Amino acid sequence: MAESDGFPLAGPGLWVERVGDRTFPASRPALFLDRDGTINVDTGYPDDPATMVLRDDIAPVIEAANGHGIPVVVVTNQSGIARGYFGWDAFARVNGRVLDLLADQNAFADMVLACAYHDAGSGPLAIADHPMRKPNPGMLLEAGRRLGIDLRRSLIVGDKPADMEAGRRAGLRRGWLVDGEVSTMDGLSVSPLRDAADFEGLLAAIRSL
Fold first, then answer.
1. Residue 72: beta bridge partners?
2. Would you please indicate which residues are annotated as catalytic (active-site) residues?
3. Which of 80, 144, 177, 208 has the fewest beta carbons closer than 10 A?
4. What is the 3-state secondary structure (H, E, C) of 122-179?
5. Cα(104)–Cα(62) distance, integer angstroms
């Protein structure tokens, strides 16, 4: 992996960070989560760690995966970097704050991947429909390769249809869409994530893995 300015960059627009030292047996399913709007309240193009607030009830979901030996992988598009609104240094500070807020509630991510490629960018980041940018499955596939994940049995949680589509293209069969509706996307069963009953359903799915 190439490193730039001390950041874990696998390319100019791809952050791949292994968090912590937990190890997992081969072919374990994972819990994939989008970040902004799913783990933390979406603030648009987040560049200030002081504004980060976790969404209600998401930390117990991650804690449940931790407790059941399920890798937790964050996969986030970050077009704000391509657009020049902030750099990887600001991303690192914001992401560190989100991970700290989770840790305060005994919830931990095992890997974070972020894609900054976008057609509105400039220079090497100006790539349209990059394979790592959701709805493409590249980040999920990369995590699967690095952690030996069984993608078919894995779960994804997100707040946009692009998150669900990335899961479908990666071969996942179940997803939860924040404030979404029940639907099926060519093999991916999508459940809403709106209320306590929905969160209980997600927790039950994690415990059954």
1. 31
2. 34, 36
3. 208
4. CHHHCCCCCCCCCCCCHHHHHHHHHHCECCCCCEEEECCHHHHHHHHHCCCCEEEEEC
5. 12
Contact 60/203 with Cβ under 8 angstroms? yes
Is the pTM of the predicted complex or chain greater than 0.85?
yes
Consecutive sets of 10 residues in the chain, 209 residues long: mean pLDDT of each?
A: 72 97 95 98 95 97 98 98 96 98 98 97 94 98 98 98 98 97 94 96 97
Residue 54, burial from CB neighbour count under 10 angstroms (0-12, 13-18, 19+): middle
